[in-house]
Write a structure and sequence with these properties.
The protein is mainly alpha-helical. Among the domains are: about 30 residues; about 50 residues. It is about 45% helix and about 0% strand. It has 5 helices and no strands. Helix 1 crosses helix 2 and helix 4 packs across helix 5. The longest helix is centred in the middle third of the chain and has 18 residues. It is elongated, with a radius of gyration of 31 Å.
Length: about 130
């Protein structure tokens, strides 16, 4: 399935090659009413996006749900789905948490038991603990 903007470009390309708009839409199976369509959603969302960016800079640890509460207090009521869509569209996200420090893999480990009567408190994951009775 090809997206609408790609199909719109294909119709424009066909028109540039001398094909009529009606004929190019018929060949590419694209509705003529969709060619000149301009979404009004971008103008509707612009004020919300700018306020969302402001709040995200003030409160960098908050996510889209908490920012949605602040927007609702400002009179910009919206669903969680719309808030999430605008949050992703603006490419906003909180800073990621730093991972915890782990032990180095190249750290020297005690050698495993090599003979009888050797008992180790620490056993590596590759060799089992050896205990031999006296």
């Amino acid at each position: 399935m090809v997206s609408v903007p790609v199909r719109r470009k294909a119709v424009t390309l066909a028109k540039g090659r001398g094909l009529a708009e009606r004929r190019s839409c018929t060949l590419l199976q694209f509705a003529r009413s969709s060619i000149r369509y301009q979404s009004r959603l971008a103008t509707k969302d612009e004020a919300v996006l700018s306020r969302m960016r402001e709040l995200a800079t003030i409160y960098p640890r908050y996510g889209y749900r908490r920012i949605q509460v602040f927007l609702a207090r400002d009179g910009m009521q919206m669903s969680a789905g719309r808030a999430y869509r605008l949050w992703k569209q603006a490419k906003l996200q909180g800073p990621t948490k730093r991972p915890r420090r782990r032990l180095a893999g190249s750290r020297p480990r005690p050698l495993p038991a090599t003979a009888g009567c050797q008992v180790w408190a620490y056993a590596s994951s590759t060799t089992p603990v050896q205990t031999v009775g006296s």
